[in-house]
Amino acid sequence: MYTFSNKLKIASYILMAVGVVGIAIGFASMPHTVEDAKAIVASHGDGHGEGHGESQAAGHGEEASHGTASNDHGTEETHGEGHDASHDEHLLHQLQNKPWAALYVAAFFFMMIALGVLAFYAIQRAAQAGWSPLLFRVMEGITAYLVPGGIIVVVILICSVAHMNHLFVWMDPEVVAHDELIQGKVGYLNGPFFIARAIIFLGGWILYREFSRKFSLAQDEASDNSNFKKNFRISAGFLVFYLVTESMMSWDWIMSVDPHWFSTLFGWYVFASMFVSGITVIAMVTIYLKSRGYLKEVNDSHIHDLAKFMFGISIFWTYLWFSQFMLIWYSNIPEEVTYFVTRIEDYRLPFFGMVAMNFLFPVLLLMNSDYKRLNWFVVMGGIVILAGHYIDIFNMIMPATVGDQWFIGLPEISAVLFFAGLFIFWVFRALTKAPLQPKRNPFIEESRHFHY
Question: Taking Cα atoms as reference points, which of 276, 240, 308, 307 lies closest to residue 116?
């Protein structure tokens, strides 16, 4: 049985405590009036996002002045002032969104790791893979985080529906009233249906995880393979449910922050991101447990196979990223290409840096077969991959929610620290609940003697 070390437990507590304090400070420093928002922008001087926002405000002011000079009756002046006031209100909403968006990005990122592991676990069960049964308990421990992590994400979504933030612009009745495109989507994009879908998605994922875990533990004490067969059947069925709900989840929870934009590749793109992140965490947790004297029968070939998946899915992610980018950029349809124009203009460093971290680094670090057997090399590559996919989620959410007022500051770092601490605590506590090695899996001997 695994014992949760006090050092790791204390480290998780510290991460959560520091994270909570930072998140609280982020929300406390959130502007409440337009004047507060302008003061925050001015205080940041010529920062990349803030300077751009300030120049926009100045531009609107110049338009208003021009309107005053050119029209004695004040018609253009009134229009300019109204446009300027609208911009100021938009700026306020962006800065108010910053702590919410930071919290949402980190919450979704860690939740998607658990969901990616759940998909990988179900695939191993449905395929009746012979190499992976020794890793099943690690996967089951990581997927335990889906309960608190998923619930937190849904709570943030409920807060959005309750108008506690402005993350999803289609939830604002005033915006919808003046936007014909969003009006055409209200049958799908409406608060009650949105939350109902979220509960169905999360409920289905958690139900599969709990039943699969139950059958997995029961198989250890059984005298036949009936529980193994049950796990096979529910895993095959779950994969159908997962493919549908994961795609819809990516439309709802991420793509709808940009309700005018859509991509038919987006569900697969998000899946690739969560899948490679989940496999990376399986490898890193397995390596950690081996370093502590557990999982002695897990050998270099198991780590090698996990690293192959990390390498292969990184290439798959890059293929989807390039396909989505190239097709949209080449067609040059304004309402589609604006998604990438915004990110290239205002998020150039994280946008292109994320591509380098999620493609170039995995290729350079993990292409060589021998390197895939070096634990420290796999961990180093894994850290880069996880950081890259956090930035990927950051790039998906931030442009539509905070616009050009972004920077990696206290709210972003604190949210990552809090959810990292919660993830570590929940996963490693779950690993203490059952022996780390299954006993009666029909393929356990094949897994023990697995060599590449």
Answer: 276
